[in-house]
Every structure is written in C-alpha cells, then in structure tokens.
Specification:
Layout: E1 2-6, H1 18-32, E2 36-42, H2 49-52, E3 56-65, E4 68-79, E5 82-88, H3 90-93, H4 104-118, E6 128-132, H5 138-147, E7 157-162, E8 170-172, H6 175-178, E9 191-192, E10 195-197, H7 198-205, E11 208-211, H8 214-219, H9 223-226, H10 230-235, E12 240-242, H11 270-282, E13 292-300, H12 306-316, E14 321-329, H13 331-343, E15 348-352, H14 356-365, E16 368-371, H15 381-387, E17 391-395, H16 398-403, E18 415-417, H17 422-437, H18 439-450, H19 457-471, E19 478-480, E20 502-504, H20 519-525
Parallel strand pairs: 1-2, 1-6, 2-5, 6-7, 7-11, 11-12, 13-14, 13-16, 14-15, 16-17, 17-18, 19-20
Antiparallel strand pairs: 3-4, 4-5, 8-10, 9-10
Helix pairs in contact: 4-5, 5-7, 11-14, 12-17
C-alpha cells in the first residue's frame, strides 16, 4: 500500500505537541512493515536552516482558493527512510509560530488544497490519504467536491484522525465561500450550528474516522467530551475506531539517551538515582533521595487537570515531596505555579516554556509523574514516563485509562483515580508516597513499568488493517457540482466508467440562510476585522 500522512507538524522538523511525534513515528513504523508511507507538512519559517539544507526543490505551481491564486512550492527530504514533502508559501508560513493567526482557516485551507494539487504533479499515487486534526480537515471535503473525478484520485480513500476534539476549526459562516471557495451546494458539508466547522466537514466526508485511543473513541460520543459534536459522531460511529498512539522507543531510550546524567535500563536501574540527584540540583531543589519527586511536563490549560493541582497543592506539600513542573499556557496557571515556587523554595521548581533536555531530565529523574487530566485523548507523557521508570499518577480517562493500571491490582503500572476530584487525586498521591517508602516494592515497580511496551508496533498494525479494509470498499459515488472548476485529467465530454455512478448535486438555494442572530453573532457583525478562529493550537 501507499499512504500519504498529512499533518500540520512532524518530528524531526517542527513540533508543538504530540501530533508531531505521531506523524514522525507512525510513518516510520508503517514503512518498517513493508508499506510506502510519506508525510507532507507546511514549510514553516521555524524549520531550521540545517533541516532546510537536506531539502530538494521538486516543483511549483499556483493554487486557487476562492478568488485567490497563490504560489506553492514543493520541497522534499528523506529522514530514516521516510520521504517528507513540504508545502512552501512564504505569505502563509514564514511567521513566528505555527498557529493562532487571524487567517488560520485560509492558511490551512491553502495547505489542504495544495496537497491535492501536489499529487497531480509528483510520482506518488497514494491509496490512502491520512489526515490529522482540523488543519487538514478540508482534504476529504475538497477531494470529494473538486478532485474525485480525476484519474489519480478517483479511488483514493481518506482517513481522518481526531487528536483532540476540543479544537475543531470553527469560523464564521461567510468563509465557506470567500475563503474556502466551496460552491453553494457543498457549503453544507462544513456548516454546523450556523458556523463553519472544518472538523465536522472531515467527519462527514472521510471514509474512516479514528481517534487516538479506544476509550476516547467511546468518550466523544458523550456530550461531556464531544464539544458539541456528539450527535454527529453517534451518527457516524459505524466508521469510528480508536487506535492507541505509541512512542518511538529509539528516541525515548534511557539506556542510550544523551540527555541523561547516567544511562540505565530495566536490567540495571541504579543510574536512575543519579538522574534524580542531578534533577534536584538542576531545578534548585534540596538533594534528598528519601524525598519523593513529583514531575509534570504539560501545557498549562484547564483540561490538563491543573485546577485539581491548584486545589490540593498546599496539602500535597504538607507531605515529604518535591514538585518539578515544566510547561506554559494560560496566564492564571502560570501565575499560580510561579507563586508556589516562591512559597516553597528548595521544594518547588517551575520552568515556563518548553525545554526538551529538561523534559528528559524530569522523565528520568522524577519518582512519579502526575497527569490529573479532565480529558486526555491519548497522552504520550505517561508512556514516556513508564519508559524511564517513573511511576504515573493519572486520572482514568481517555488514553490514560487504556495505558495505566492501578498498583492495587494485578500487573499495576501506576496509581489511578476515577472522578475529577482534587481529594481523590490527593489520595492517589498519598498511596504512591506509601509505596515509595517501601524500597523493595518501589524498585520492583520501577523495573516492571520499564517493561511496558507502548512502541508503535501494535498500533501501526491496527492502522494497516484499517487501511486494507478501506481498499476493499466500493468506489465512492461521484457528484458533479455546477460551480466547480473544470477538471484536469478528464475531458469535459468524457463518460463515467462502469465503476462510477455520477449524480447531480442538489440545486443551489437562491440565498444561503443566515443563522439566527445571537449576542455573539451580532457582536461579530459589528466588527469589521477578518474572522478569527475560536480556538488555539491543536494538542
């Protein structure tokens, strides 16, 4: 099979969260199983000069987007046997940062259409296009509206993966025509509750829908987790699958990690004590091997459960523990943890931002790793912590429920609590502290959790099975849209093949009905600025 993996970020070139790790590792794992897998992402300004030196120019062309006609360059590079393509447009991507701009809808609509245009010009004909999160959500839509008639893309199947349903790509309805360039009959694909919702379009138009853990696939059918999309997902659950993410065991390897003070393995965990002492000194904590170090590497946002930590923090610090945090995010959480570092000198360390080397030091040097998430689609941090022998303390939700079993049961590899409650989290920390005092028990637990296997092997196999199942399905029914541009690769008078069924699109209404005015929409109408996304970066 040939798979094109489309993502807004990918290791080793550019990253802001777990999606980049998935894009880099899953493509490599699929290739190792004998299938051709390539990755495409935007050529951001933040990609290093060293990485750019590996790139080779392939071709260039213009991409039409509504009334716009923009330059697009294609570059390629190969890393670990995987070929990466880069979509180049300096106006859209030569900026500081990846997301959070007023024109993100336009930037990623351009990216989505450029990917489909690129496939007309390169010698790679994918059987599967695997799209990830709202930034790539227009690919299944554009494919079915504008490109399905083309010979190279007639039978290609699309997979859309939801990494975090909170970020859906929601914008004002007017961009369906002026920015996305959809014909009026097709605008309903992306309309949801009076707005444009890009994720909704992908959910409807993709051939298969996945999330990043089995539990999260069940959770998003519930209004508590679905952020408004529960009814649609219940309707489409016949094509919904939850496949657990993994981590790259070559990148996260305590036996060979160059960031560590002393390497170690499950066969000899003595080096972990050296890494703990080094972390304490690096973080300005009092070196003490008898004190349990709690580590967190997280984005400081509400769904990561930081309200629970804030609620119970002073009671946590009444116990013989130290606390090390690395992350950044919402101002209220940053200010709180800064204040805690001042209130508990030599016991609390907070570093705002992201430092990959410090993150490895925390994974290897902490005794326990805290993840009290309100929701967690998959979570990679708990898997990395296990790999480094650091015992996770987690709330059982999403991927955390699929990966962490409580120490109170058989083959436990962490401490869990079920309800989103600060007192329950505190009790889980207390149980961990009791286990920490029993050194024979604790050392045995460290060895056991380091033997957990959350590499990409099993997950890649499940994706390959999903892909093969899609290729056995019948070709999609073709729909001709009256406002679509003339198709390349097929003459106007060409008749459909015997495998194709062509039907006309529904007649366009005279005027698309405007949504009922709300306080929010009235306020938006009074603002002359371009529509701004209602959300932030995908994590």
């Amino acid at each position: 099979m040939k798979i094109l993996f489309v993502a807004s970020e990918a290791v080793p070139f550019v990253t802001s969260g777990g999606l980049a790790d998935v894009a880099g590792a899953l493509s490599k794992a699929i290739r190792h199983r004998g299938h051709a897998c390539r990755v495409v992402l935007p050529l951001y300004g933040s990609i290093s000069g060293e990485a750019r030196q590996q790139m080779r120019f392939v071709t260039s062309f213009n991409v039409s987007l509504s009334w716009r006609n923009q330059y697009c360059g294609i570059f390629e590079a190969t890393v670990d046997g995987v070929k990466y393509y880069f979509i180049d447009n300096e106006y859209y991507y030569q900026r500081e940062g990846l997301y959070g701009f007023y024109d993100d809808a336009e930037r990623f609509a351009f990216f989505s259409k450029a990917v489909l245009e690129m496939l007309q010009r390169i010698e790679f004909d994918p059987d599967i296009i695997h799209c990830n999160d709202w930034q790539t959500a227009m690919i299944p839509v554009y494919l079915n509206v504008f490109y399905r008639h083309m010979e190279k893309l007639r039978n290609v199947k699309t997979v859309f993966s939801i990494h975090n349903i909170q970020y859906q790509g929601t914008y004002d309805l007017q961009i369906a025509y002026d920015v996305l360039g959809l014909p009026v009959p097709a605008a309903g694909m992306v309309e949801f509750n009076g707005d444009v919702n890009l994720m909704k379009g992908a959910i409807e138009q993709c051939d298969a829908l996945t999330t990043v853990s089995p539990t999260y696939a069940r959770e998003i059918l519930d209004p508590w987790y679905a952020h408004g999309l529960d009814a649609l997902l219940q309707e489409k659950q016949h094509k919904l699958t939850g496949i657990l993410n993994g981590i790259d065991y070559q990148i996260y390897d305590p036996q060979n990690d160059p960031h560590l003070t002393q390497n170690y393995s499950a066969a000899d965990i003595s080096g972990k004590a050296s890494n703990k002492k080094d972390l304490q000194m690096l973080a300005g904590l009092a070196p003490d091997k008898k004190t349990m170090v709690i580590g967190m590497v997280t984005r400081m946002v509400g769904h990561k459960g930081l309200d629970l930590v804030r609620y119970a923090f002073h009671r946590i610090m009444e116990q013989n523990v130290q606390f090390v945090m690395l992350g950044s995010g919402e101002w209220e959480y940053e200010q709180f943890f800064r204040k805690m570092a001042e209130d508990y000198p030599r016991r609390v360390s907070v570093t705002l931002g992201f430092d990959p080397q410090l993150a490895r030091r925390i994974y290897s040097g902490a005794d326990v790793f805290l993840m009290p998430s309100r929701s967690e689609p998959c979570g990679l941090a708990q898997m990395i912590a296990l790999r480094y022998g650091t015992i996770p303390i987690v709330r059982s939700t999403g991927g955390l429920a699929d990966t962490i079993r409580d120490m109170g049961g058989e083959n436990g590899n962490g401490y869990t609590f079920l309800t989103f409650n600060g007192d329950d989290m505190l009790y889980a920390i207390t149980r961990a502290l009791e286990g920490f005092w029993d050194k024979d028990f604790w050392n045995g637990a460290v060895v056991r959790v380091m033997g957990s296997d959350f590499s990409w092997g099993n997950s890649a196999g499940q994706y390959i099975t999903l892909y093969k199942g899609l290729l056995e399905q019948a070709p999609r029914e073709l729909i001709e849209y009256p406002d679509e541009p003339k198709k390349k690769g097929r003459k106007k008078s060409a008749k459909p093949t015997k495998d194709e069924k062509v039907k006309k699109a529904p007649k366009a209404p005279k005027e698309p009905k405007a949504p009922k005015a709300t306080k929010a929409s009235k306020a938006a109408q009074e603002t002359p600025e371009a529509p701004v996304s209602k959300e932030a970066a995908p994590q």
